[in-house]
Amino acid sequence: MICVVEEPADVIPIERTHEYRGRYHVLGGALSPIDGIDEGDLRISELRQRVAAGGITEVILATNPTTTGEATAIHIGDLLRSQVSVTRLAAGLPVGADLEHADEVTLGRAVAGRRTTD
Q1: Where are the domains of the chain?
Q2: Rounded to whole angstroms, how far apart are CA atoms 112 and 23?
Q3: Which CATH fold would you assign to the domain 2-91?
């Protein structure tokens, strides 16, 4: 399993959860055509090589929930989906939050990403 993040600092909060036990791949940023950052400026080709080498069953896309992070996740998902299972971090309401204070995008993602009760 490989967890893909934008920057090295993004590894720390994932490690703090104690939920992930795999390897990481740091892209070195996110796609941003406006800023002139394209695939060649990130470590996407290295990620493709790691997946092609075999032994990887899942790639978790843990890019930031920003426009550039989402675009990067979509692009990488499209590149790798035929070779390996590609997943994205869930998004939704933080624990302890009130629905009345949630913005529409966050609440919409929580509804779309709902799961059965355990």
Answers
A1: 2-91
A2: 28
A3: Dna Topoisomerase Vi A Subunit; Chain: A, domain 2 (3.40.1360)
Residue listed under structure tokens 């069953």 = 57
Q: Taking the chain, what is the end-to-end CA distance rounded to the nearest angstrom?
A: 25
Lowest mean pLDDT across 18-32, 67-81, 98-112: 98-112
Per-residue pLDDT band at 91 (split at 50, 70, 90): confident
Q: For residues 20, 63, 8 and 55, what is the CA-based torsion angle, rounded to 10 degrees?
A: 50
Helix (H, G, I), strand (E, B) or coil at 60: strand
Q: What is the mean pLDDT of residues 68-76?
A: 95
pTM above 0.90, yes or no: no
Token pair for residue 48?
């493709």
Please state the φ and ψ torsions of residue 72, each to the nearest 5 degrees: -65, -45
